[in-house]
Design a protein that fits this description.
The complex is a heterodimer of chains A (138) and B (508).
Chain A lengths: L1 E4 L4 H17 L3 E6 L10 H26 L4 E6 L3 H12 L3 E5 L5 H7 L2 H8 L4 E4 L4
Parallel strand pairs in A: 1-2, 1-4, 2-3, 4-5
Helix pairs in contact in A: 3-5
Chain B lengths: L22 H10 L3 H16 L3 H7 L1 H17 L6 H9 L1 H33 L3 H4 L2 H21 L5 H27 L23 H14 L4 H4 L11 H34 L7 H10 L4 H32 L18 H21 L3 H27 L8 H29 L10 E2 L2 E2 H23 L15 H4 L11
Antiparallel strand pairs in B: 1-2
The chains are: A alpha/beta (138), B mainly alpha (508).
């Protein structure tokens, strides 16, 4: 089992390709996850419309990703959750006893990553299983 | 495959994160919802100049309509969680025309608030670094405020946020700095250490009835609405809090008590320590808190208050801009605005198109107004409060209409879902109408800024509403199907009201 963080970015698409390759080679299934929690306070009324939009987007992109995996002969499951991305991936890896977490990178400088928040960076420090960080451009 | 349940976290019946928020977080959100340090810095000078020693009373009294309206938000939220915005509630209960203009009013508050946030942040930022001469210069403050608007818009687009722990520390530090200021100021007054002109506090300062000039009272109450703006979100926490029967209730009550005590004690401290003549001399009203903090606490402790106001102004960007851009998003999804405004950024997951639009409109509006107006903050906050009163009143009425079949089912329903929202809506509608008629004569208004013979806040407020009405009609003509076919006068289904069934998402 591999957990893939997937948001349809260039890095995530390449991460998905790598994950599909690995999963097929090892005969493992994939969990393709999208964290839909909107930034900002999780209260108030407008939050829910925002969440609904993100969940819709999450279902669309993970659905397409699952189709791609299935086409390649890999069993895949989509997860869209109202969580922060790092928490979601760590919990999924834990829950499924994943071999590794696969994510794409944006290829940013460390400073930019520090300002915007770098998912691969946080995962590397917090994950109990190996993290495979896949760059967008080969 | 496809839609999946939330892993690693239970979801409550409504799909919200159960056990997501504990007591401390609920308390922090309750306190932070109104951005107390920034609100006080922006408002205290205006209120004291408008109503004198009755400032504490006015701040207390303006909580009353807010409290009643919060009941409306609480029950509407309960009935309509999945797509619950003021925009969608009002659309359901009162039809698309009212719904649209209510949503528009919320978007307008976003545009208006950015300018005042940036203005206060710019001034207090300059004071913090000790550049007092720049803080007193309008062009300098305006230039820095424009940079701050750009930065705040970027922060909202990127969705960057501080960790919850940092936010908790910041909000408690803000409240403590304000209370420290109030306690030391009052101790100095009591000990005779206050400068000449200081007043001894009196119990009559807490009575709004002691104010004879009703025009001043209305001005004070209208501005007072602004300092409690956002408080309803603290009440809406119930479903998302662990042990939702008691924890959020206690946290909401405690945060409200702390807020009221902070506002009233700072107001008493300002009036008592400075006296009315001195307060009246402040032209840049938002500088009053920092100046008095210098006298009361001395250097360097006074910087605590300055820092509190600055962090409060910056931190409240997300809690004030994001909801406005989310309303735009919600309206776009409901077919009430162009689709492009409902787009979310694929990476940052924020409604970036509407956020940038709000940032641009805020700049376009802030710069000329600040240069034109003699008292920018008064004009902005009055216009902002008009908008808040307008959409809060609509929400109150929408609640009563939406729940009309439930009101007679119990005394509790009648009082909390019927009477309270109705009274709150009527109070705010009265404030709105009365302020509009007062502002129609700039001679009577406090700042005296006028444009085309009308008070500037009215021109801004009414101007935005009229612009909204024009856009609404144009949108209706271009898109007669969809959103404008909605009928309004929907009612809550009895099962939903009783909490036994899910509401149907209609607008989303």
């Amino acid at each position: 089992m591999f957990v893939v963080g997937y948001d349809d970015s260039a890095g995530a698409q390449r991460a998905l390709d790598v994950a599909i390759e690995l999963a097929r080679a090892l005969g493992e299934p994939l969990v393709i996850a999208f964290a839909a929690q909107p930034p900002g306070r999780s209260v108030g009324d407008e939050y829910r419309s925002h969440l609904a939009v993100l969940e819709e987007r999450g279902r669309a992109v993970t659905g397409a990703a699952v189709a791609r995996a299935t086409e390649a002969g890999v069993t895949a499951e989509a997860v869209v959750a109202d969580r922060k991305v790092v928490d979601l991936l760590l919990d999924l890896a834990d829950e499924h006893g994943a071999r590794a977490i696969v994510v794409g990178t944006y290829g940013e400088s460390p400073l930019r990553g520090a300002v915007l928040g770098s998912t691969p960076h946080k995962l590397l420090h917090l994950s109990k299983v190996p993290v495979l960080a896949v760059p967008a451009a080969g | 495959v496809g839609e999946a349940a939330t892993p690693g976290g239970e979801t409550s019946e409504h799909g919200l994160k159960a056990n997501a928020i504990g007591f401390t977080d609920a308390l922090v959100i309750g306190l932070a919802s109104t951005a107390p340090a920034y609100s006080l810095a922006a408002v205290i000078g205006l209120v004291v100049v408008a109503v004198g020693v009755q400032a504490p009373a006015v701040l207390l009294a303006s909580f009353i309509p807010m409290f009643f309206i919060a009941a409306a938000f609480y029950y509407m939220n309960k009935a309509d969680q999945d797509c619950g915005t003021t925009f969608s509630w009002v659309t359901r209960a009162m039809g698309p025309w009212f719904g649209w203009i209510g949503g528009w009013a919320i978007c307008t508050t976003g545009i208006l608030v950015v300018g005042s946030l940036a203005d206060v942040a710019a001034r207090y930022g300059l004071l913090l670094v000790g550049w007092d001469s720049a803080a007193a210069s309008k062009p300098a403050v305006t230039a820095i405020a424009v940079l701050i608007i750009a930065a705040m818009t970027a922060v909202c687009v990127l969705g960057t946020e501080l960790s919850a722990r940092v936010q908790n520390v910041m909000i408690f530090a803000q409240v403590l700095a304000l209370l420290l200021f109030a306690v030391v100021a009052l101790a100095k007054v009591a000990g005779g250490d206050a400068p000449e002109g200081s007043l001894d506090p009196s119990a009559s300062w807490l009575s709004p009835f002691a104010l004879e000039d009703t025009g001043a009272l209305v001005t004070g109450l209208l501005i007072g609405v602004f300092i409690y703006w956002g408080w309803e979100s603290a009440v809406n926490l119930t479903e998302e809090t662990e042990d939702s029967e008691t924890t959020p209730g206690k946290a909401a009550v405690l945060s409200t008590v702390i807020l009221l005590v902070t506002y009233v004690s700072v107001a008493i401290a300002v009036v008592a320590f400075a006296g009315l003549d001195r307060v009246g001399e402040f032209e840049d009203d938002d500088a009053i808190l920092s100046t008095l903090a210098g006298d009361v606490l001395g250097s360097p402790l006074d910087q605590l208050v300055v820092l509190a106001v600055l962090t409060s102004a910056l931190a409240s960007t997300q809690t004030t801009i994001l909801p406005a851009s989310r309303t735009v998003l919600s309206m776009a999804r409901g077919g009430a605005m162009p689709d492009s405004l409902g787009r979310v950024h694929p990476r940052y997951l924020t409604p970036h198109v509407s956020t940038v639009l709000i940032g641009i409109l805020a700049t376009v509006w802030y710069v000329p107004l600040n240069l034109l107006s003699e008292n920018f903050l008064f004009d902005t906050l009055s216009a902002l409060s008009l908008m808040i009163a307008f959409y809060y009143a609509l929400s109150g009425f929408a609640c009563v209409i939406y729940y009309r079949h439930e009101l007679t089912k119990s005394v509790r329903n009648f009082l909390f879902i019927g009477v309270a929202p109705l009274v709150g809506g009527l109070l705010l509608a009265f404030l709105f109408v009365r302020s509009v008629s007062d502002l129609a004569d700039p001679e009577l208004s406090y700042s005296g800024s006028s444009f085309l013979g009308l008070g500037l806040p009215l021109v801004i407020g009414a101007g935005f509403l009229l612009l909204g009405a024009v856009l609404m009609v144009l949108w209706r003509i271009g898109n007669p199907r969809g959103y404008f076919e909605r009928r309004g006068f929907e009612a809550v289904r009895p099962e939903v009201a009783a909490g036994r069934a899910e509401p149907e998402p209609v607008l989303d």
